[in-house]
Amino acid sequence: MGHPPSQIKNTVWENRLINYTIRRLLLLIPLLIFISAMIFAILKLTPGDPAVILLGERATEESIELTREKYALNKPLHIQYVKMMTNFFTGELQSIYYKENVITVVLKRMVPTLELGFTALMLALAVSIPAGIISAVKRNSFFDYASMTTALFGISIPVFFTGILLIFLFAVKLRLLPASGYGGSMFTLEGIRHLIMPAFVLSFTLMASTTRITRSSMLDVLKEDYVRTARAKGVRESKVIWKHAFKNALMPITTNVGNQIARLFAGAVLTETVFAWPGVGRLAVNAIFRRDEPLVFGCVLILSVIYVVVNLMVDLFYGAINPRVRYE
Amino acid sequence: MVEKTLLEPGKSLSQEESAPRYAAPGEPSSPPVSGEPSSPPVSGEPSSPPLPGDVMAEHPGGLRKMKEAMGILLSSPTAVTGLVIVLFWVFVALFAPYITAYGPMEQDWKAPNQGPSMAHPLGTDELGRDIWARLAYGARIVLVILPVNEKIWLPGGTAIWGVLAALFVGASLGLISGYKGGWLDEIIMRLLDAMMSIPVILLYLIIVAALGASAVNVVIAIAIVGTPGVARLVRSLTLDIRTRDYVRAAETRGESLFYILFMEILPNAKGPIIIDAMLRVGYAIFAMGTLGFLGLGMPPPSPDWGSMVAKGREFILVGSPWASLWPSIAIASLVVGLNLLADGLREESMRYQ
User: Fold this and answer.
1) Chain-centroid distance, C-alpha B86
2) Taking CB atoms and an 8 Å limit, are A160 and B329 in contact across chains?
């Protein structure tokens, strides 16, 4: 349009957006401190001498003493914490097991995790959004009941159940797919063959909540006056559903999907374990069991921060899809 | 700030409050079937005339409320289905010694890894232990007893205690946060948000790995992980309820903070909290299964569903899936039951608004 008043409005809006973004980013700092302090505190509850764990049972007294010195393990807790945080940010925090910088170790595992996660999410969205819309439009129909029941099972059935069932059927009985493991990049045949089962299992859990939310927010919107008006005007039903209803129902769906994306980076701990998928989730679990304290600390911290940042981006994305959103 | 509440618009108010007028004791309640799952809350008088007072008067106090709650429950087929499944497991857990032919640790070296048979209805595991017996005794740990150590145990299952603890801490924080507002609210909610950003399963694992795998520590983990969610819910309910007249009245009377929070606000928020708690018990059972599956379940000989899955998994590739399938089904069915119960109750209580 280009009228001066609307331009002024736009600048105000942009300023607010920038302010909002900066404030949210600043909030990351206390968040980071709190999360790291909490993880640190829990880790310190673990019995045993970290220096001994670090070096193994047969280490000499001397080397243990040196390690304590190096990681400030003989200092009070708050100094140990500060040391760990500084080490984390300077990239000196090393995994005990991998003997490598924690951040590098985590980032290396990101690729399989994201391959699995995004394939599963795409699968889930491709099924659940149409299913949710149809369920809402044809409320109380057979389809509605069927998809809602499936969704309920999706939330309730543990991943190891579906995983085990699929492995038993497709790997043991039918010998169609490999039982577990990573077959290389998802752009190769072997990679895809390995990806199918875990992606399906993971998408089943993601599907459930999106279907339910799509259905309930569509039901809300379909009751609105503007939908009735559109229908009364004689707008085609498909257009009413897609343009008038679905567009307005998108907000809660975006929240949900955004949340799922934010969680994808943490890897699907269970799916990765069941299928021996070399992702971040399994890395974290193994680190916990190996008592690889620095890696656990780094892993959880990185994953939490990614979660917060992705959620922030989703919040900002709202403004793009819904002009009514105001950032204060 | 984009406000994201856990609530759908229709379900934010106390649901039990407006329910009594419809749910006549004993009468199969037939509310107007306009009940969209998210119909806007109708304020003011309900459209149909209230029942004669004497019917209510016959059942004073708690009994009447129980009957009303049952009325809501029984009018939803979904909730009844869920209730039946949950009660089945409670029954199995309570009467485990009477409905199993073997003990949970009893081994039969001659019959390991068998499929279902007459002698062992669900088959046996790798040590020849009866899977049905282990499932039944496993249900006890989840639902009816909390083993503190080898000799002492408390009534109420591990999952139940965990959720109760989360409810207690979460509700207290949520009430204070929502009622007081201001910087206190800001700090509490920011801290809880931070906790929520830690991946749930990892948080469970770290806590239980640090404290050691035992039922009490699992309770602690469930409580810590569940607290932020409960607090958020209770806070949003409190924000709404604190503007009501009866809260103003209590303030004017000069009631203590404790009284206002726990006697005025909390009882009026209990509907959504109860439904949320049921879902949470489901999550807790899920979490216990996950912990067991990943190797942090109850210490070995004790029958832990998750550990049973993990152990049985090793034998799938050699073609005997039973030992891991049954406990998976047990976990799934119990969680499905709780979800159905919560879903049914939510839809049903929404109709009364």
Assistant:
1) 11
2) no
**How big is the A-B interface in CB pairs under 8 Å?**
148
Q: What band does A193 get if pLDDT is binned at 50, 70 and 90? A: confident
Query: Closest Cα partner for A214 from A121, A321, A132?
Result: A132
> How many angstroms separate the CA of residue A105 from the nearest CA in chain B?
17
The pLDDT tens digits for A38-93 are 888 888 887 766 667 666 667 777 777 777 776 667 777 788 888 888 888 887 78
Q: Match 């001397």 to its residue by tokens.
A: A62
Q: Which of B327, B300, B287, B289 is nearest to B130 (CA)?
A: B327
* Beta-carbon separation of B2 and A156 below 8 A: no
Q: What angle do CA B294, B300, B304 make, to 5 degrees?
A: 65
A30-33, Cβ contacts within 8 angstroms, sequence gap of 24 or more: A30/B190, A30/B194, A31/A308, A31/B190, A31/B193, A31/B194, A31/B197, A32/A301, A32/A305
* Angle at which helices A293-321 and A280-289 cross, to 10°: 150
Interchain CB contact of A156 with B (< 8 Å)? yes
Burial class (CB in 10 A: 0-12, 13-18, 19+), B274: middle
Using DSSP, state whether A101 is helix, strand or coil: strand
Query: Which of the residue ranges A136-150, A259-273, B208-222, B232-246 would you say has the lowest mean pLDDT?
Result: A259-273
Which ipTM value was assigned to this complex? 0.84
Residue whose token pair is 């404790």: B258
Contacts of A304 in chain B (CB under 8 A): 194, 197-199
CA distance B271 to chain A (A): 20
Is the C-alpha dihedral spanning A298, A300, A304, A310 positive or negative? positive
Structure tokens at A315: 């919040």
| Whether domain B158-300 has CATH 1.10.3720.10 | yes
A39·B206 Cβ contact <8 A: yes
**Below-50 pLDDT ranges, chain B:** 1-59
Task: Tell me how far the alpha carbon of residue B65 is from its chain's centroid.
Answer: 20
pTM score, two decimals?
0.81
Query: Which residues from chain B sit within 8 angstroms of residue A316, using beta carbons?
Result: none
Q: Report which DSSP code applies to B261.
A: I
Distance set, CA B269 to CA A50, B174, B326 (Å): 46, 11, 38
- Report the C-alpha gap between A51 and B262 in whole angstroms: 48
Interchain CB contact of B38 with A (< 8 Å): yes
Domain ranges (residues) in chain B:
76-143+303-353, 158-300
What is the per-residue pLDDT for A206? 85
Asked whether the beta carbons of A39 and A297 are under 8 A apart, the reply is yes
Token pair for residue A200?
A: 């399906």
Closest to B197 (Cβ–Cβ): which among A270, A291, A304?
A304
Q: Where in B55-207 does DSSP place strands (E)?
A: 145-147, 153-155
Alpha helices in chain A (DSSP H): 4-45, 50-55, 61-70, 77-90, 102-137, 142-156, 159-166, 189-222, 225-233, 237-239, 247-264, 269-274, 280-289, 293-321
Q: Kindly report, residue by residue over A2-27, the tens digit of the pLDDT.
A: 455 556 666 776 777 788 888 888 88
Share of chain B above pLDDT 70, in %: 78
CA distances in angstroms from B2 to A13, A17, A251, A313, listed in the order given:
15, 12, 11, 12
pLDDT of B169 reads 95
- Say which amino acid occupies B35: G
Contacts of A83 (CB under 8 A, 6+ apart): A71, A72, A75
Cα→Cα distances B206→A20, A83, A297, B280, B296, Å: 34, 21, 10, 20, 10
